[in-house]
Amino acid sequence: MTMPRPFATSRQRAAGSSYLDPVPSKGNSLPVYPAEFLARRLPAVTVVVRLIVDPAGKVSDARILDNAAGEQAFADAVEHAVRSWTFLPLQRVTGRQVQSLPFTEDYRFTFRQENGRAVVEGE
After folding, report:
1. What is the pLDDT of residues 87-99, one digit of tens each?
2. What predicted TM-score, i.e. pTM, was given to this entire model?
């Protein structure tokens, strides 16, 4: 599995400092396609989530920003997966001082079926 890249980020920036971007843990898993929807052969469903990550690199909150299909099971699958995600945190480097910072990132997950097989892609 390839870890999805965020499509939107929010970072605190300060003049005179450099930053080390956060790195998602390799063990972060994608959401699982809800099995009860496989027989329905739905068109692709997209769910957008905003992750709020604390200075330790743990997801402190996950907020669904868009669930246009309206099927709560897909939003629940996204929330269930991303709440366990971890990151090497965002770090601000000022001189010799390194400070871990909170940050937010938005991810878009697309649930679809391909030849009767569930596929979940993230960006």
Report:
1. 999 999 999 999 9
2. 0.85
